[in-house]
Design brief:
The complex is a heterodimer. Chain A has ten helices and no strands. Chain A is an all-alpha fold. Chain B has nine helices and ten strands. The radius of gyration of chain B is 18 Å and the shape is globular. The chains are: A mainly alpha, B alpha/beta.
C-alpha cells in the first residue's frame, strides 16, 4: 500500500492513544471473563440447590448409563446422519426445481406452476411430524407396487417433501433479490429467458441464499429424529428404548449431545459464510 | 436508406402516455442524440427499440423488418441491437472477460477461445487489457461502463443504444467513456444516445432530437438545435441547461 514509502514515526499523541486503547481492551476482556464465571457459578448453584436435584442428577447425569448407552445411541445416530446426507442433496434439487417451476411463464407450463404453488403451500403448512406420519403409515397402506416399504426410505421421502417446500421458497426469495436490471442486461444481449436465468440470475441467487439454506439444514439435521415415530431405530429411538427399560434418562442426554456435536459446526460455518458475504458487500460496495 | 424506422410509437403506463406518437428515422452510421428533461421519454424510447418495453401503438422497423410485430422473435431482434445502461448492469459474478464473451458464446455460438480472443482485442483497443480477469466490483465506474460498452458491441450489433451512460459517473470518468463512444462513431457504428451531456451531444451527433413530454418536438443538426432552436420549449430547455452550467 505504501509503495516503499516508510510511514513516519508515530507522534506522542498517537502513542498515548494506542496505550489507552490497549488498556481498554484488557479491561473489557477481564470484565467479560469475570461476569461469565459469576454467571456460571450462579446457574450451577441455582440448579444444584433445587430440591429435586439429586433425583435429576441420578436419572439424567449418570456417568455409568452414559458410557453404557453411548455405543447404541451412536449407532442409531449414524442412521440420522445417513438420512440427513441422503435427504439434503435431494431437497436441494427438489427445492430448486419447484422454485424454477413457479417462475415459468409459458402457458404450457401452467399446470406445473399451479402444482408448485399448491405443493409449497401445503407442505409449509403441515407440521413436519405429521408429514412423516402420513407418509410413513399412509404410503405403504396404499399397497401400490413400487412404493418403498422400508421406514428409512419413507422417512427420507417425508423429509424431502417437507423441507423441499421450505428450500423452494428460499430459492425463490433469492431469485427475486436479483435486480431486474440484470435480467434486462442479459435479455438485451439476446439471451433467452432460460439462458438469462441459468447464466445470470441463478448464479447470483444461489450465492445469496447459501446462509439461509444452511440454516434450514441445521434444522433438518435435528428433524431427522422425527422419523423415530415411524419405527426407525435412530439415536432418539435408541435412547427411548434405554430410558423405557431402565428408567434412566441419561441416554437422552447422549442423543442431545450427539445432535449438538453435529449441528454446531454447521451453525458456525453458516455464521462464517454470512459474515464473509457481509464483508464482500462492504461499506457501500456493489 | 434507413436502418431504423420508428413510426408513430406510443407507450402508456397506467393512465399516462410517456411516448406520444414518436417518428424517427436513423440511417446507417448515423449518430442520433436524444435530449430533453428527465421523464421526457428518452430512456423509454430506447427500451422500446430494444423490445424491453412493449409499445402501445405504432411500429418499429430494423433493416426493413418490423420488430414490433407480435410474431417477431424477440431474442433474434435483440441479437442485432446492443444496449448500454446508465448503471452499467455488468454481471457481478463474472469476470470482465466472461461478461464480454457470454453473449457471443451462448447466443451466437462463437467457440470460447475465439470469443475470448476477440474480447481481449476489444479490451486492448479501449485500454482495459489488464482488466480481463477482474470482477466488476474491482473496477472504477468509468472502467465498468467501458466494459459494458465493449460487452454490447462484442456481438457486432447493427445498432447501439446508449441510455444516459455517463449519468452515474464523476466528470473525470465521463471523459473516458465519451472517448470510447467517439471511437465507435469513427468506426461507423450506428448509435442512439439518450444523454444529458450537451457539449458531447453537440460534438458527436449527426442529428439531435429534443423530446418533451413524450413528444419529439424538434430534430435537426446539432448546429441548428443548439444555436438556433425553432421551438420555444427547446430554447427554454437549453437555456435552463446553460444556466445550470452544463453547456
Amino acid at each position: 500500500m505504501t509503495d516503499g514509502v516508510t510511514p513516519p514515526a508515530k507522534s506522542a499523541r498517537q502513542l498515548e492513544r494506542e496505550r489507552v486503547r490497549r488498556g481498554q481492551a484488557i479491561r473489557s476482556s477481564s470484565v467479560a471473563t469475570a461476569s461469565t464465571i459469576v454467571f456460571l457459578v450462579l446457574v450451577g448453584v441455582l440448579v444444584t440447590s433445587s430440591p429435586g436435584w439429586p433425583r435429576v442428577r441420578e436419572t439424567f447425569f449418570d456417568p455409568e448409563w452414559f458410557t453404557r448407552a453411548l455405543p447404541d445411541v451412536l449407532q442409531g445416530f449414524w442412521i440420522n446422519v445417513k438420512i440427513f446426507l441422503i435427504a439434503e442433496p435431494i431437497i436441494l434439487v427438489v427445492g430448486l426445481l419447484v422454485a424454477l417451476a413457479r417462475g415459468l411463464r409459458a402457458p404450457v407450463f401452467f399446470p406445473l406452476r399451479v402444482l408448485a404453488v399448491v405443493y409449497t403451500d401445503v407442505f409449509r403448512g403441515v407440521p413436519t411430524l405429521l408429514v412423516i406420519m402420513l407418509v410413513g403409515f399412509g404410503l405403504p397402506a396404499l399397497q401400490l407396487t413400487g412404493v418403498p416399504s422400508d421406514e428409512i426410505t419413507l422417512g427420507v421421502v417425508a423429509l424431502v417433501l417437507a423441507y423441499g417446500a421450505y428450500v423452494a421458497e428460499v430459492f425463490r426469495a433469492g431469485i427475486d433479490t436479483v435486480h431486474p436490471s440484470q435480467i434486462a442486461a442479459a435479455r438485451s444481449l439476446g439471451l433467452s429467458h432460460g439462458q438469462a436465468m441459468r447464466h445470470v440470475v441463478l448464479p447470483q441467487a444461489v450465492r445469496r441464499v447459501i446462509p439461509p439454506l444452511l440454516n434450514d439444514f441445521v434444522s433438518l439435521q435435528k428433524d431427522t429424529a422425527l422419523v423415530s415415530t415411524i419405527g426407525v431405530i435412530e439415536a432418539l429411538r435408541q435412547a427411548q428404548i434405554y430410558a423405557a427399560s431402565k428408567f434412566n434418562y441419561t441416554p437422552y442426554l447422549v442423543a442431545a449431545l450427539l445432535f449438538i456435536v453435529l449441528t454446531i459446526p454447521m451453525a458456525r460455518f453458516t455464521d462464517y459464510l454470512s459474515a464473509r458475504a457481509a464483508r464482500r458487500r462492504g461499506p457501500g460496495g456493489a | 436508406m434507413t436502418l431504423l424506422r420508428i413510426e408513430g410509437v406510443w407507450k402508456n403506463y397506467r393512465h399516462q402516455s410517456v411516448l406520444r406518437g414518436i417518428d424517427l428515422d436513423v440511417a446507417p452510421h448515423e449518430v442520433v442524440c436524444l435530449i430533453g428533461a428527465s421523464g421526457s421519454g428518452k430512456s423509454t424510447l430506447l427500451r422500446c427499440v430494444n423490445l424491453l418495453e412493449t409499445i402501445d401503438d405504432g411500429a418499429i422497423h430494423l433493416d426493413g423488418d418490423e420488430i414490433t410485430d407480435v410474431r417477431a422473435d424477440v431474442d433474434e431482434v435483440r441479437k442485432r441491437i446492443g444496449m448500454v445502461f446508465q448503471s452499467y448492469n455488468l454481471f457481478p459474478h463474472m469476470t470482465v472477460l466472461d461478461n464480454i464473451t457470454l453473449a457471443p458464446r451462448k447466443v451466437h455460438g462463437t467457440p470460447r477461445d475465439r470469443a475470448e480472443e476477440q474480447a481481449r482485442e476489444l479490451l486492448a483497443r479501449f485500454g482495459l487489457a489488464d482488466k480481463a480477469g477482474e470482477y466488476p466490483d474491482r473496477l472504477s465506474g468509468g472502467q465498468q461502463q467501458r466494459v459494458a460498452v465493449i460487452r454490447a458491441i462484442a456481438t457486432q450489433p447493427r445498432l447501439l443504444l446508449l441510455d444516459e451512460v455517463t449519468s452515474a459517473l464523476d466528470p473525470i470518468l465521463v471523459t473516458e467513456v465519451l472517448s470510447i463512444i467517439r471511437e465507435l462513431k469513427d468506426a461507423g457504428m450506428t448509435m442512439i444516445l439518450a444523454t444529458h451531456e450537451m457539449s458531447f451531444a453537440r460534438d458527436i451527433s449527426d442529428t439531435v432530437c429534443f423530446l418533451d413530454g413524450g413528444v419529439l418536438l424538434e430534430r435537426g443538426s446539432p448546429e441548428q438545435i443548439f444555436s438556433d432552436p425553432e421551438h420555444p420549449r427547446t430554447r427554454e430547455f437549453l437555456q435552463r441547461v446553460l444556466d445550470a452550467g452544463r453547456l
